[in-house]
Request: fold
Amino acid sequence: MKNEDKIYRELAPCGVYCGACPSFDKSCFGCASINKYQKRKSKWACRIRRCCYAKMAYEYCIQCEKYPCEIYRKKLLSSHKEDPRYSYRYEITALFPHIRILGIERYIQFQKKRWTCELCGGQIRFYDYQCDKCGAYTMVHT
Reply:
């Protein structure tokens, strides 16, 4: 990774907002984290992460001229198509390019706001789109 001293754990290299993941800050420190002591280990085998960081030395896939490449399409855009729990994945290609305009910090704030419950300020989690504080079910605003 190019800039390991400035890691934003909330945002995966593929553009998924890790802050809305049910595992974030429980068993996982985020896909961008380099902490090897987290319980969840799946990120180490992620082909998108390995390509972005090791092969291409980018921080985010959006920096690559091949975005969205075949690896990206296969892993994120071609899997779980009929499962509404994974609808957050299909928004990424429309939203991720905004990082170029907003910059990383404002983009993360934008994502954080999208995944915050309007009723109580709790965190909406993907897969069930339910607030982890008040339990309300909601759709995330784009």
Remarks:
- Residues 18-131 form one domain.
- The chain has a mean pLDDT of 89.
